[in-house]
């Protein structure tokens, strides 16, 4: 028996979520029904697609093979829907963007609000995760990344460069001797990423300037900036975050100035999806404009 699209849709949800309850929540189907549908699909194919483990529902070798076919079928369905929806004047449906929490917190809310204003029938979801978004399992329709992936069938476009500097709260600077060199930073409390949870080499800012100890650490940019805003130490911050933290001041700007880039990464199979193409264009333009606006405000 050949699986129909409804069977495949349920199979893909369980494969991605590794849980009947999570898949049911996404599909708006009772978990017990999801389980029965998977059991029926396995019976019709005369094979086991999942094994139950402590981690949840894990694909078997047969399940992995079916996943490849399911992803191709999903791309075809999305392309067909996108071709129809893309011809409309405004966008509709749902689009999910994956992003590291720096861009997810400080750039995407404003950018997506503007896109939403222009497309009232469009639902935009921002998935903020301190790790690489798994596009192959459709965690998101597209992702903002801090480096260009080198593996996988992906569409990759550079969005924009952005700047980073060392910062500290004004009251912290008032309570401590002036920081005149990178060497003198070692006498201050440094705040940054948890070293073994840095998911992209481009985020290892402190190592780039010769700092090997992080006294207060978090895998979240927002937490790091909150700690610095409380006057507890020094960290590397994106310039585009500084207008949101008016008590922070750049330091050692003549010695430490980092540049990184954002990229938009999409499924290669979506390259003819006019709906996603239009959204991606608006998203990239919006991010570029927002970075330029916020960095100019930070320099003022």
Automatic annotation (TrEMBL):
<protein>
    <submittedName>
        <fullName>LysR family transcriptional regulator</fullName>
    </submittedName>
</protein>
<dbReference type="InterPro" id="IPR036388">
    <property type="entry name" value="WH-like_DNA-bd_sf"/>
</dbReference>
<dbReference type="GO" id="GO:0003700">
    <property type="term" value="F:DNA-binding transcription factor activity"/>
</dbReference>
<keyword id="KW-0238">DNA-binding</keyword>
<keyword id="KW-0805">Transcription regulation</keyword>
<dbReference type="InterPro" id="IPR000847">
    <property type="entry name" value="LysR_HTH_N"/>
</dbReference>
<dbReference type="InterPro" id="IPR058163">
    <property type="entry name" value="LysR-type_TF_proteobact-type"/>
</dbReference>
<dbReference type="Pfam" id="PF00126">
    <property type="entry name" value="HTH_1"/>
</dbReference>
<keyword id="KW-0804">Transcription</keyword>
<comment type="similarity">
    <text>Belongs to the LysR transcriptional regulatory family.</text>
</comment>
<dbReference type="InterPro" id="IPR036390">
    <property type="entry name" value="WH_DNA-bd_sf"/>
</dbReference>
<dbReference type="GO" id="GO:0043565">
    <property type="term" value="F:sequence-specific DNA binding"/>
</dbReference>
<dbReference type="InterPro" id="IPR005119">
    <property type="entry name" value="LysR_subst-bd"/>
</dbReference>
<dbReference type="Pfam" id="PF03466">
    <property type="entry name" value="LysR_substrate"/>
</dbReference>
<dbReference type="GO" id="GO:0006351">
    <property type="term" value="P:DNA-templated transcription"/>
</dbReference>
<feature type="domain" description="HTH lysR-type">
    <location>
        <begin position="3"/>
        <end position="60"/>
    </location>
</feature>
């Amino acid at each position: 028996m050949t699986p129909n699209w409804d069977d495949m849709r349920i199979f893909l949800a369980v494969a991605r979520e590794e849980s009947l309850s999570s898949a049911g929540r996404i599909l708006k189907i009772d978990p017990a029904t999801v389980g029965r549908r998977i059991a029926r699909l396995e019976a019709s194919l005369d094979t086991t697609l999942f094994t139950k483990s402590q981690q949840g529902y894990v694909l078997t070798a047969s399940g992995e093979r079916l996943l490849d076919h399911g992803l191709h079928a999903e791309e075809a369905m999305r392309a067909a829907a996108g071709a129809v929806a893309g011809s409309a004047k405004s966008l509709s449906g749902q689009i999910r963007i994956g992003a590291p929490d720096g861009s997810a917190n400080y750039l995407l809310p404003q950018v997506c609000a503007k896109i939403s204003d222009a497309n009232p029938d469009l639902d935009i979801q921002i998935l903020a995760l301190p790790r690489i978004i798994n596009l192959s399992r459709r965690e998101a329709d597209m992702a903002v990344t801090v480096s260009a992936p080198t593996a996988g069938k992906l569409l990759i476009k550079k969005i924009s460069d952005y700047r980073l500097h060392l910062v500290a709260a004004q009251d912290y600077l008032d309570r401590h001797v002036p920081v005149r060199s990178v060497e003198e930073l070692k006498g201050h409390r440094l705040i940054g990423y948890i070293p073994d949870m840095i998911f992209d080499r481009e985020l290892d800012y402190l190592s780039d300037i010769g700092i090997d100890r992080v006294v207060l650490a978090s895998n979240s940019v927002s937490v790091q900036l909150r700690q610095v805003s409380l006057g507890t130490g020094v960290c590397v911050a994106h310039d585009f975050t500084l207008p949101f933290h008016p008590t922070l001041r750049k330091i050692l700007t003549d010695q430490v100035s980092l540049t990184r880039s954002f990229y938009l990464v999409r499924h290669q199979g979506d390259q003819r999806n006019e709906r996603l193409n239009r959204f991606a264009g608006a998203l990239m333009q919006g991010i570029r404009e927002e970075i330029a606006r916020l960095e100019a405000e930070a320099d003022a």
